[in-house]
Amino acid sequence: MAADAQICRTVDYNGIMKILHLSAQKPDSTGSGIYLAQTVAGFARMGCEQAVIAGIAPNDAPVFPEGVTFHPVRFETDQLPFPVCGMSNVMPYSATRYCDMTPEMTQQFKTAFRCAIGEVLEGFVPDLVVCHHLYLVASVVAHEIRERAEADPVFAGCKVVAICHSTDINQMRAHDLEHDYIVEGMHMLDEALALHAPQAAEIAEVYGIDPAQIRVIGTGYDRHQFHPEYGVREEGARRLVYVGKIWRRKGAMSLIRAIDQMPEDVAPRETVLVGGYSEQAEYDEAHVLAKQCRYPITFAGVVSQEQLIDEYARANVFVLPSFYEGLPLVILEAMACGCNVVATDLPGVQEWICEHLPDAPVTFVGPPRMRTTDEAVEEDLPAFEERLANALAQALSAPSPTCDTTPLSWDAVCARVLA
After folding, report:
1. What CATH architecture is 2-217?
2. In sequence order, what DSSP letters do the residues of 122-162 get, joined into one string?
3. What's the CATH class of domain 239-406?
4. Domain boundaries, the chain
5. Cα diameter, the chain
6. Same fold flag, 2-217 and 239-406
7. pLDDT tens digits, 18-60
8. Angstrom distance (rounded) from CA 261 to CA 389
9. pTM of the model
């Protein structure tokens, strides 16, 4: 019987990789959602057969490439009577914090995803399961695949991996929700996938995973959308663009203060801040600082991808003065569109970019000391803002770079996952 089952699977496989993707979060919002959507698109270009399980709100309708089957786990329903769980405590949509989940909510969560996984596995035997976040839903599927493999050899060849996005590590360090269950599940993974080497070291420390089972795959950008031929850039225009949440922890306030202290002959003639906000008070504070700044600053808000590409294409310099990131996708997008880049020198980012792009046009600025994971020591900010202003002045006066960024595309990430 076992031999017959294995033969059936071989025939069904037919040389086409079958991949199941899982995320407890919305698959089209936040960095991890974009990561999921873009890798699904990349694997589709490779001809893989795919299914996606993800948590969504009642009226959400994510769009995936043709041929990809989507199995939603809907929150705010009788089965899950609370909003989608968020890996960050502040999400761009209504979300439940993991630290606020009761035992009843946790059991409802596990049951809902276990049911969705079971329904998918009834007709789709994946060769590879890719989970986003080394956290609760990844543990659910790791346990489920392990149990099925022990009962039915058709699942014995199914590999399970999980991609770390840093917020999972933050959750593990912040509270004890299902801690032992999560760690047990992570030890069932075939591999944990990290964005960069320092993160890989954190995974080994937090979860106790053998470093030999952790592989660095990085992040990527959509080379089919982001490229320097898209728009028109004026050399010497000194146009600066920031993309991210308008938030103190993203360095938005420090950026405005840094611009204000720059000499007129090197300061940006135009600065555009692209992105939404979660905290009204901080957003209002940014507007006040911008009005007081000696140079013009525009708040563009949340924009479409077409508008975002246009902003990159018209900018001379992209800046990301954030105090905490995993591996920021926006840096790759900006470089692909021909921008010089100024960014905070955060753990793992410089090493990973320079490993793949030795000639990357990025100036890294030493960060302030940190009080918490993403909260800077206040007295260090003036010196950080001075360093930021000097780096911006140099980047704004530099010519537009020529740098082949395709080694950092989503297609390259997908190839690393399948390697």
Report:
1. 3-Layer(aba) Sandwich (3.40)
2. HH---SEEEEESSSHHHHHHHHHHHHHHHH-GGGTT-EEEE
3. alpha beta
4. 2-217, 239-406
5. 79
6. yes
7. 999 999 999 987 788 989 999 999 999 999 999 999 999 999 9
8. 7
9. 0.81
